[in-house]
Design goal:
The complex is a heterotrimer of chains A (121), B (95) and C (535). Chain A contains one helix and five strands, in the order E-E-H-E-E-E. The model of chain A has no long low-confidence stretch (mean pLDDT 96).
């Protein structure tokens, strides 16, 4: 149902268009079954950043404190967005991998499901 | 007015000297009322309907009482309210 | 003059006659302005009202009686506040952890009272009916009273403890305070009918008992005589507001069948919005009261499932159903307090109060109160974090969260069916992606995206560079965005936030009271140990 407002055809301004982030786009990254990190992490990244640089340069700063992190076999990681599973090309950019502004990337690390296999940690 | 509902109504009052006679009057006029005591607070549940009668409060209090004085010590209520000079009623209408 | 001596004393009016004269009797029909020019915002929501005189205040409270009883309440309350201050009551609470809850209160709740005051001011102007206009006017004064009494009470604590002296400034800036702020601003910027259904019914009638009954009773149990007094003094007004809430619902439903779907939609929306806001209270009850009265899940059972059940059974005769997302609230009742506390702990460097892990005694209590959830999902996490603390590598999260576009909480809640999977929802709207924390919030966004695209989401504002003080240079080599964003929010990094143990409040508490700052952990400092040796 369209909004009912005093002003006809009221529409709020979009507060968070990509043009407002100084050349970056927002990306949300969620490590599934590791709920010690209890929310998708929001970071501003250049759309041209290679996916491999995300893994090597960004994720350690976010998730590196977790004992599972060093054990991750990045070839076995399962990636998905709201559009479904995908296999990233590490040499290609975030954009070329279909990661746009405010995309949420979830990843799962088979065999690594939290401290002592407990997904809440 | 009789009600057929058995859903609980409640009134919660501050636990203090002002409310003791009111709580006694409620106990007397509502045999089904259940009084729960919490820190600083008394919550009285009753199925369907709960009445506070001015005359009963006055009996326990030993002076004239205006039912609106309840406002000073009331913490919360559940149920439809009907207040007159004689009675303060909380009730659910459907069962 | 002589005739006066013979006059019989006027008959005392009954409550009902008095009410009729002092409400409807004070209204008038406009003669030189059109009614629709005077009451300009009453039609656009689509509510149909045939007869405003059908409105009846069941308390039949008139302004003369209002001043009388409110005056009495104030005298009583301020006598207690005086006694509290003169007797150093701030040191008589259970321990210094309790004080952290008051910070949440003054920074996150008191301003809602003020926003509510403004909202009811508008209703007192906008409603054409005299009865509801006077009720709204009284409520507007009540809400202002609540804000001022809370500020006066907590100011005594602010003299001794950190994090309470910047509350109006923080309310407009702190990232997690955008949750209560945006809740109320959403209500205040809707129409008058949606506002009154949102605040008087969905929030005050259905939900605020949870805030003011068990939590305030808990404040009393922890020795805070001033807070329980303002709480219960406010709540005595609240009982009247709640009655306004149920009366307005019945009035709207009885006026015209066209109002039923509108009212249902607003109940569904605002019940969920209010519930999400109160998640904060779940954690205040279970974690911030060192001595506890009841657990959040018990309070939810009594005040929502049982009493809300009775209410919605009563409203069924109008065709009103219980709120659409009520089943989710019941499914979450064993989780929400623990999820919230975990998140605050993990992010304790980014909040305006000090955090701790629950003690063995508290975890035993939670195992007992939450037999289906605590030991399985939350105890292992706390035990791991305790081990990390003991190893000297305490866990901290340092990255900002994905926020919900509607409630503005981080997307931290789990799916009702699976407590190890986050409940992440999103919508594509006009080519942009929007995130929600739940189906309840997604319902709301999808219904009126025109409003929520405009939300001021703190995380996004920080990344746009809008949350730094003047003169701060984000291109400087030593620029620390977290530190600078906290300064912008009015939080003193390293003073207001971080670990409770070793923090200013805990250390000062032990120095000033010679009692442990955390009753479950024994003394942190020599201030307590020395005083015990001497005595």
């Amino acid at each position: 149902m369209p909004i009912k407002a005093i002003t006809p055809d009221y529409h709020g301004d979009f507060k968070d268009g990509v043009e407002k982030f100084n050349g970056n786009q927002l990306v949300n990254i969620h490590w599934e079954k590791h709920l010690m990190f209890a929310w998708p992490m929001c970071v501003p990244l250049p759309p041209g950043m290679p996916f491999g640089a995300l893994i090597e340069g960004v994720l350690p700063g976010i998730f590196g404190a977790h004992p599972n992190f060093k054990q991750i076999d990045w070839n076995a990681v399962e990636w998905k967005t709201s559009k479904g599973p995908f296999k990233p090309d590490l040499a290609k950019s975030l954009s070329d991998n279909g990661i746009g502004h405010k995309t949420t990337i979830s990843f799962r690390t088979p065999g690594l499901n939290g401290v002592n296999g407990n997904a809440v940690c | 007015m009789a009600t057929t509902s058995t859903q609980p109504v409640f009134i919660a009052l501050q636990a203090n000297n002002d409310t003791m006679p009111i709580i006694e009057a409620i106990r007397q006029d509502n045999p089904n009322a259940v009084v729960h005591e919490y820190p600083a607070m008394v919550k009285i549940d009753c199925p369907g309907r709960l009445v506070i009668r001015r005359e009963s409060v006055e009996e326990h209090l030993g002076r004239d009482f205006d039912l609106r004085e309840i406002q000073i010590n009331m913490i919360s209520i559940a149920g439809n309210v009907d207040e007159s000079d004689e009675e303060f009623v909380l009730e659910w209408k459907t069962h | 003059m002589a005739a006066e001596g013979n006059a019989k004393p006027a008959k005392k009016l009954s409550l009902k006659e008095n009410y009729a004269l002092l409400t409807r009797g004070l209204g008038w029909e406009p003669s030189y302005e059109k009614k629709e020019d005077i009451f300009r915002t009453i039609d656009f929501e689509g509510v149909v009202i045939h007869d405003w005189d059908k409105w009846e205040d069941p308390f039949r409270l008139t302004m003369d009686a209002y001043w009388k009883y409110q005056g009495e309440k104030e005298r009583k309350l301020y006598a207690i506040i005086d006694a509290f201050q003169q007797n150093n009551g701030q040191f008589n609470v259970t321990d210094a952890r309790y004080v952290q809850a008051l910070k949440v209160f003054i920074n996150g709740i008191t301003e809602l009272e003020y926003l509510s005051h403004r909202g009811f001011n508008m209703l007192a102007r906008e409603f054409p009916g005299v009865g509801p206009r006077i009720a709204a006017q009284m409520q507007s004064l009540d809400e202002l009273r609540h804000a001022t009494t809370q500020i006066h009470t907590i100011s005594q604590y602010a003299k001794y403890f950190t994090g309470m002296n910047e509350f109006p400034y923080q309310f407009d800036r702190v990232w997690y305070l955008s949750i209560p702020k945006s809740f109320f601003e959403d209500a205040v910027t809707s129409g008058p009918f949606e506002f009154i259904v949102a605040i008087s019914f969905a929030f005050e009638y259905v939900l605020t008992n949870l805030a003011f009954m068990p939590w305030m009773s808990g404040a009393a149990f922890n020795g805070d005589m001033a807070t329980v007094s303002f709480g219960f003094s406010a709540q005595s007004d609240e009982a009247r507001h709640m009655t306004l809430g149920i009366e307005v619902i019945k009035f709207l439903l009885e006026q015209d069948p066209a109002n039923v779907p509108l009212v249902q939609k607003w109940i569904d929306k605002w019940f969920w919005r209010g519930y999400r806001l109160l998640s904060l209270l779940a954690t205040m009850m279970d974690y911030m009261l060192p001595k506890r009265v009841m657990a959040w899940n018990e309070a939810w059972e009594i005040y929502y499932e049982q009493n809300g059940g009775a209410l919605f059974a009563d409203l069924a005769r109008y065709g009103i159903k219980p709120p659409k997302r009520a089943p989710e609230t019941i499914a979450e009742k064993g989780h929400v307090a623990h999820q919230m506390w975990s998140v605050f702990y993990a992010n304790r460097d980014a909040v305006g109060f000090q955090m701790w892990l629950p003690s063995e005694e508290e975890m035993a209590w939670m195992s007992e109160k939450y037999p289906d959830t605590f030991d399985q999902y939350y105890r292992p996490r706390y035990e791991y974090w305790k081990a990390m603390e003991a190893a000297g590598t305490p866990f901290k999260n340092t990255t900002l969260p994905q926020l919900c576009q509607v409630c503005q909480w981080p997307c931290l809640f789990t799916d009702s069916g699976d407590p190890t999977t986050l409940s992440l929802r999103e919508t594509e709207y006009q080519g942009q992606t929007f995130h929600m924390c739940s189906d309840g919030c997604k319902d709301i966004f999808d219904d009126t995206p025109e409003k929520y695209v405009h939300a001021w989401l703190p995380v996004h504002q920080i990344y746009q560079g809008n949350c730094f003080l003047p003169g701060v240079d984000p291109t400087a080599p030593d620029f620390n965005p977290m530190y600078e964003a906290l300064r912008y929010m009015g939080i003193k990094p390293g003073v207001d936030n971080g670990d409770f143990k070793g923090g200013a409040d805990a250390t000062n508490w032990e120095k000033w009271t010679s009692r442990p700052a955390n009753i479950h952990e024994g003394a942190y400092t020599d201030a307590v140990r020395d005083s015990h040796i001497k005595s």
